[in-house]
Each structure stands twice: as C-alpha cells, then as structure tokens.
Write a structure and sequence with these properties.
Strand content: under 5%
Radius of gyration: 17 Å
Oligomer: single chain
Low-confidence stretches: none
Largest sheet: none
Mean pLDDT: 79
Distance between the termini: 24 Å
Helix content: 55-70%
Length: about 100
C-alpha cells in the first residue's frame, strides 16, 4: 500500500510506474501468504486450534485471514507513510526496506 499510495504524488511518470509495479508485486506476496495460511488452517478442529495456540486469533477472526505481527499486533495503516514529497517518500521506502532486511538477518 505504501508504494501504491505514493505513486500519485510522483512528478516523474517513470518513477510512478515503478512504484505501481512494486506495489502490485507486494500485494501479490500478501495473496500468496494468505492462500498458504488458509490452506493450512481451513480444516482445523477446535482441539487443534487450542493446542496450536491459534485460539486467541480464532476468537477474533475465526478462520478469516488478517495480517498481524508475531507479537499479535494487527496490521494498520500506520505501517506505511505518504508525505507527498517524492524525495521524502522514496527515502522512507528505502528506510522501510532496510529495516525489513535487518530483521531478516
């Protein structure tokens, strides 16, 4: 959503196009993750849900897919920023991607 939201304030059409491509690709990643989670959880019994520790999430969402952090914090729009200034937005993109890379290592 970060990239797709930022593309509208980009003055350079090529950069706006790149942000559209990146945003579309990232949404595809979310779809893949949701499909995997759905396939792994669609036939769980209540006993399996409780045993796996999935019961707190299940109480809030049943078997619906809603992204949240490993600590249980639900996704919200505060996870991305749009300032409307191309340099600020691109800098924020690099900082967010750098933080993600640091978390993975």
């Amino acid at each position: 959503m970060r990239y797709l939201s930022q593309r509208y304030s980009m003055k350079n059409a090529k950069i706006a196009g790149v942000l559209t491509d990146i945003g579309t690709e990232e949404l595809g990643h979310g779809e893949i993750i949701c499909a995997i989670i759905y396939q792994l959880t669609k036939n769980l019994s209540m006993e399996e849900i409780e045993k796996s520790g999935f019961d707190k999430y299940y109480t809030d969402r049943t078997l619906g897919i809603w992204p949240q952090s490993a600590g249980g914090v639900p996704f919200n729009a505060c996870e991305f920023a749009v300032k409307g200034d191309p340099i600020t937005d691109l800098y924020e993109d690099m900082a967010a991607d750098g933080a993600t890379l640091q978390e993975q290592t």
